[in-house]
User: Fold this.
Amino acid sequence: MTFRKPRYSKEEHARRGKEIYERQVRAKVEASSKGKIVAIDVDNGEYEVAENSLAASQQLLIRRPDAQIWCVRVGSPAVHRFGPRLMMGRT
Assistant:
């Protein structure tokens, strides 16, 4: 198994991923992929969309084995949820 070393600090990695998503990807995926995960290579802007971060990342790594991957959930500020989900209308 090959281990890819990070090329950027956590802050720079996130900044690049957010910038690429907002500038190049969001308009292309938002209408048709709400709730899905986008995996973005922060070096070149290539991306994949899938149901979960593992699938999206694996698809991107097939094309870009050295990808520096940042993930985002379409239509949401967070990729994963922590804690219980509140069900509206249920007691």
Summary: The mean pLDDT is 88. Strands lie at 37-41, 47-50, 69-73.
